[in-house]
Amino acid sequence: MAQVTVTVHERPYQVLCEDGQEEHVRRLAAYVDQRVREIAGKSGVPGPAGQVTESRLLVMAALMVADELGETYDQLEELRQAPPKTVPDPATLKAAEEARAVASAARAQLAEAEATLRATLQRTAEAEAARNAADVDAERDRAALAAAQQRASEAEQRLTSLEEANRAFEARVRELDAEVRNAQAAATQAEAALQAAGRRLAESEALVREAEAERASMRATLASLSAQSAAGDADDEALAAGLDTLAQQIDEMAARVERSAARQ
């Protein structure tokens, strides 16, 4: 089998034929192309039409060729049914032979045209199915793209929310750092105050011990003076000296208490 590329209404088609019939197929395609162009010119379609319009043009061209063949068949039938002449007319016999040859060629052309039309319609259906499948794929791709864009938008929104939360967290960390520093400063101040209080307490305890020692000394002095006075052994000067010593101790104790109160 040979393969021939023919052009109908400015569109190429691949057609299979018997070996040696390539030129004959081209002539048939040229005849069909002429009919299609005539129909396209009358319908206002100057150039290659879409798939649906082109298939309609091919169908109309096939119908036109079939109509022409039908008229040829009718003419042959009239010739066959005509009463035979007594003396056959050579011209009539020749015309009949030519008509039969034309009818045979027309039948062959019609069969080939029908085969071409079926192949064209099949390719048209396949192209339409492929286009529908491509439309479905494109719609699915558009839906997937829209879903991806939606997910990207949601991810961007979540990222923005996370960034805002991170900024708020960092601000809170800075606040906590400031509070920790303030607390450390307050703790340092409290520790210093505690140390100062400890020193004052130690000083107070020392003063208390000194005061107790002085009170003990003063009680001893008073006891001595009382004993001397009771025994009548002490003279006035000794008694006055003892009282002066006791008064001096009392003054020193009062001065220490005042200094301790001033430091606190």
Mind sketching the topology for me?
Elements: E1 2-8, E2 11-17, H1 22-43, H2 51-81, H3 90-231, H4 236-263
Antiparallel strand pairs: 1-2
Describe what you observe in this structure.
Helix 2 packs antiparallel against helix 3. It contains four helices and two strands; from the N terminus they run ββαααα. The mean pLDDT is 77. It has helices at 22-43, 51-81, 90-231, 236-263; strands at 2-8, 11-17. It has a two-stranded antiparallel sheet. It folds into two domains: 2-130, no CATH class; 202-263. The protein is mainly alpha-helical and 264 residues long. A hairpin with a 2-residue loop joins strand 1 (2-8) and strand 2. It starts with a strand and ends with a helix.
Question: What is the structure about, briefly put?
Answer:
It contains four helices and two strands, in the order E-E-H-H-H-H.
Number of strands: 2
Number of domains: 2
Distance between the termini: 126 Å
In sequence order, what are the helices and strands, one letter per element? Answer: EEHHHH
Structural class designation: mainly alpha
- SS summary, helix count: 4
Large-scale geometry = rod-shaped
Query: Helicity range of the residues?
Result: over 70%
What proportion strand?
5-15%
Give the overall pLDDT as a whole number. Answer: 77
Low-confidence stretches: none
Oligomer: single chain
Radius of gyration: 66 Å
Largest sheet: 2 strands, antiparallel
Q: Give me the side-by-side strand order of the main sheet.
A: 1-2
